[in-house]
Amino acid sequence: MTKLSPLKRGVVIFIILGVLTAIEYYLGISDVPSILLWAIALIKMLLVLQFFMHINRVINPKKGGHE
Amino acid sequence: MSSINNTIESYQQKLAISRLGLWLFFASDAFMFGGLLVTRFYLLGNKNLNLDQTLGLLVTSILLISSFFMNRAEVMVSEGNHKGFITSLVITILLGISFLVGVVGLEWGSAHFGPGDGAEGAVFYMMTGMHAFHVLTGIIFLSLVLRNGLNKKYTPEKHYAVEASANYWHFVDVVWIIYYPVLYLMGTI
Amino acid sequence: MKNFMSTGIVKGILYQIVGSFIGAGLLGGIRALMGLSWKTEPAIVLGGLVGAIAFMVGVGAFKDWWKMAVGDDVTEASEVAGEQGFRRYFGFSLDHKVIGIQYGILSMVLLVLGGSLALIFRVELAQSGLQLLNFVQFNTLVGLHGMVLIASILMGIAAMSNYVVPLLIGAEDMAFPRLNAFSFWIAVPASIILMSSLFFGGFETGWTAYPPLSVRGPMGIQMFFLGVFFVGWSSILGALNLIVTILTMRTKGMGLFKMPIFAWSVLATSIISLTATQLIGLSFQLVMFERLLEMSFFTPSGGGNPILFQHLFWFYSHPAVYIFVLPGLGIISELLPVFVRKPLFGYKWVAMSSMGIALTGFLVWGHHMFTAGIEEYLRVPFMYSTLLVAVPTGVKFFSWVATIWQGKARFPVPMLFVLGGIIVFLLGGLTGPPGGTVSTDLHLHDTYYIVGHFHNTMFGGFIFPIFAAIYYWYPKITGRRMSETLGKVHFYLMTPSFFLMTFGQMRIGLLGMRRRIADYDPAMGFDFTQLLITIGGYLIAISILVFFYNLIVSAKKGEPATGNVWNSRSPEWDILPSPAPAHNYAGIHFNVVGEPYDYGLKGSKYVELAQNVGQRKENDE
Ligand code: HEM
Ligand SMILES: [Cu+2]
Q: Can the peptide bond before residue C414 be classed as cis, meaning omega within 30 degrees of 0?
């Protein structure tokens, strides 16, 4: 993931998020146990935190500036 | 004044400090959203709110796509791509506005209950309302960033305002990532 | 006159008044346009909200932020030349020391206001029967006494943290000076709004604002909610600032485990305020919305549940009690070694115990709800978690006792208050577990015993330590000492009066006196004890008047004290002159060369001026 250029990485993450949302939707309307929905939501959340919000920048401030 | 040893000297250090502050704010705000989540399950348990699924999926997709463009905008400003930055930012703002129209305009108008109709109404309007309020503030921040961006205030090296409002936008998206299944998908009718 | 009108606070209040009317008028206007009749309750809510924002505009809190938002340059906070002299305490200042004093003034004003409310309802309680107040007035006074003093405590700890923490860790200011000023100033309109609940019919719920009473009672509760909401933001943003300051702005060489212990307790406190405060804000907002829009969160007939409110409320309000005491306990640990000339026993353990209390504090809120009808299976776990808090609290006590053991104690006024604080807080800690044990709490809950318990904790954990802190750092602020004689009068009057009050409260509580009740049956035989409690309360008030007299007079007439008055090792005494200069350590290089509390060890130092200061200066210029 780190080798991709930031723009491409954004596209990849977005596609993953989109697919997860679609899965989530179909699971949701077909009455599966909530735990699955929680799991998907959590994965989506972590993806956004890591790749869109760059949580590393604050945990590890030495790593430096913007992109 | 150059001999002050404890001033915030470099932009780098200032950046680290501002980032930490911003994330602490997110942590704090997350507790508020968490409290609403608890409220939902405490009052409604495993009950589904029976909302319009198409509309739900639509607004969720809109917000997700806006997050994608937000990310592009931030990357582009750091790469010095001014035009791309502005375009992506404008798209983000427009999508944000459509999200608000979708939730507040359509969903609130068409839901089969009002805020005064029992615990379901109370929970639904409070959660979506609180989230919509954050979206609204996000749009305001982004509009200010757009204004300054058009005035060329941001450089690839210095654009913390872009980063901060982008992070805020993603944070609001993260909240919806949790709220969407909780409000629309979970539970039985 | 023009000068007076342009003072920040005066301008702010004027703006707030105008803003409130605009807000209320706006709502009335919109309703009129929609063909609805005038309704006071939503109007005062919107009025209060707009008024508070208008206050912030008036005081100038948004000026620089607005400039930043539209992309203009603003001066670095450290280069803003603020107003000088006494005036600067009444306007928007970015200097953490000025803001610290401002917080202190506000805290003391609230202390007087809240205390006076108690003095009024104590008169009512001194005798059975109703003499002075009706029920709503009585309940309003009790509830407002609670919340105003909580606000006072929050302001007081903010005062101590703001003034002292940057000095202790060798920083020039706080991490976000503008946010710091904002956090302070938002508390001013908040206090005004909070007090204004008196004029909108009061409220009947006590400070906890439980529904269903808060949903149905008089609308003064709305002003109460709104006031607390803004105080909450003050507390959240202040905490955010303190965390960032402590984590990122320590002087070179000061590792986390080398910083003064007070900084640790502020860090722990701030973690609680930053997160938990949101929950009280939320719970109060939900009641506000329930009242305004009939959203039934807490009304069972509409599918709501009043217990939910108690969960949300206590999830903040239990940790909040540690917000109130942790800084005070930090002050005790900070000052004790100075006055017994011995190292603080178990520094690391004390530091970690603050964190431990902060974290376990999140797990115990259910002990306020044993009788409320929470799920049976929750009671015993909450009982055990409650008793668990005693462990980190015990660590602090052992450390204090071991620090005092065989020390060369001196007893100037700050030390007296430190010792008083330890003893009173011990009493508070010992009276807690009977309330935390389910079987005994079923008897004790909602009695005056609980009132006794928490007055012990708050006095021991906050009132005594903050007085110690004021007597101790006063020379740093003014360059003069407060009178020792008056200080001793204050201490020796307040302490026995406090014991009179609190033992009286616990006695009648154990015998069955309920709290928040304006009247009681003369046949219960409480009259005499109630009278003693009232007398105790008034004596405390007199002692505090002595303190204020001392505080004000010493600023002009006190004995000059510019050096290291207490022989302390910490940098603000060891290195800086008094009163502390603007920008603290600007232009001074110092190194951390030892442990903070190694008192009595020959030749050891905590901080040392860097040898090559002169040289480095030359190089720089
Ligand atoms: C070792 C520690 C402590 C224990 C075990 C403890 C336990 C309790 C319990 C069980 C109650 C609820 C009693 C009831 O309403 O039936 C209570 C109430 C209270 N405690 Fe503590 N406590 C401790 C320390 C503190 C501290 C440090 C403070 C504050 C600074 C504090 C402030 C309060 C307050 C304000 C209340 C009353 C809340 C109300 O209005 O109902 N406590 N305590
Ligand atoms: Cu508690």
A: no
Whether C295 and B126 lie within 8 Å, measured CB to CB: yes
* Same structural domain, C184 and C215: yes
Residue C260 one-letter amino acid: P
Query: pLDDT tens, C125-167?
Result: 999 999 889 999 999 999 999 999 999 999 999 999 999 999 9
Residue B32, domain extent = 25-185
- Regarding the beta carbon of C434 and ligand 1, being less than 6 Å apart is answered no
CA of A12 to the centre of ligand 2 (A): 48
Tell whether B84 is within 8 A of chain C (Cβ).
no
The pLDDT assigned to C614 comes to 46
Q: Is B34 on the interface with A (CB under 8 A)?
A: no
Q: pLDDT > 90: what percent of chain C?
A: 74
Look at chain B and report how many structural domains it folds into: 1
Min Cα distance A6 → chain B (Å) is: 7
Whether the CA torsion C554, C559, C565, C570 is positive or negative: it is: positive
C-beta atoms surrounding A15 within 10 Å: 11
Contact C295 B20 (CB under 8 A): no
Q: Which two tokens stand for residue C305?
A: 């549940």
Q: Do B181 and A37 touch (CB under 8 A)?
A: yes
Q: Taking the complete model, does pTM exceed 0.90, yes or no?
A: yes
> Do the domain assignments include residue C61?
yes
Give C283's Cβ-side CA count (13 Å radius): 24
Output the pLDDT for position B6: 40
Q: Does residue B119 carry a pLDDT above 70?
A: yes
C66 and C174: one domain?
no
For residues C242 and C349, membership in a common domain is answered with yes
Residues C193 and C67 reside in one and the same domain: no
Nearest to A10 among B72, B174, B187 (CB): B72
- Residue B160: inside a domain, yes or no? yes
Distance from the A3 Cα atom to the nearest Cα atom in chain B, whole angstroms: 15
* The pLDDT value given to residue C616: 42
| Same domain flag for C341 and C212 | yes
Q: Using a pLDDT cut of 70, give the percent of chain C over it.
A: 98
What is the crossing angle of helices C8-33 and C177-196, to 10°?
A: 60
Which residues 6+ apart lie within 8 Å of C440 measured at CB?
C434
Ligand with minimal distance to C157 CA: 1
What is the predicted pLDDT for the residue at C580? 87
Q: Which ligand is located closest to the Cα atom of residue C314?
A: 2
Give alpha helix (H) positions in C219-342: 220-248, 261-293, 306-340
What's the CA-to-centroid distance between C529 and ligand 1, angstroms? 23
Q: Ligand 1, residues C380, C450, C510: which to mutate, most atoms within 8 A of Cβ?
A: C450
Q: CB atoms < 10 A from the CB of C467, how many?
A: 25
Residue B11 falls within a domain, yes or no?
no
Q: Which of C78, C179, C252, C296 to mutate to test the interface with B (most CBs of B within 10 A)?
A: C296
pLDDT tens figures, C66-108: 988 888 888 877 777 777 777 888 889 899 999 999 999 999 9
Q: Model confidence over C528-544: pLDDT tens digits?
A: 999 999 999 999 999 99
Confidence grade of residue C208 (pLDDT, cut at 50, 70, 90): very high
How many structural domains compose chain C?
2
Do the Cβ atoms of C283 and B32 come within 8 Å? no
With respect to residue B12, please indicate whether it lies within any of the assigned structural domains: no
Task: Determine the residue of chain B that is closest to A55 in CA distance.
Answer: B23
The domain spanning residue B55 has which CATH number? 1.20.120.80
What are the backbone dihedrals phi and psi of residue B188, each rounded to the nearest 5 degrees, phi first?
Answer: -115, 150
Q: Does A48 contact B57 at a Cβ distance shorter than 8 Å? A: no
pLDDT at C619: 40
The ligand that comes nearest to the alpha carbon of residue C426 is 1
> Does C433 share its domain with C445?
yes
- Give the start-to-end residue ranges of the domains of chain A: 20-57
Query: C5: domain range?
Result: 1-74
Asked if residue C619 is part of any domain, the answer here is no
Identify the pLDDT of residue B9: 54
Residues C10 and C86 in one domain: no
* Among C54, C74, C94, residue at a domain's last position: C74
CA distance C207 to C214: 10
> Do C257 and C376 fall within a single domain?
yes
Ligand 1 centroid to Cα of residue C461, in Å, is 12
Residue B71 maps to a domain? yes
Q: Which two tokens stand for residue C485?
A: 């004689």
Number of H helices, E strands in chain A: 3, 0
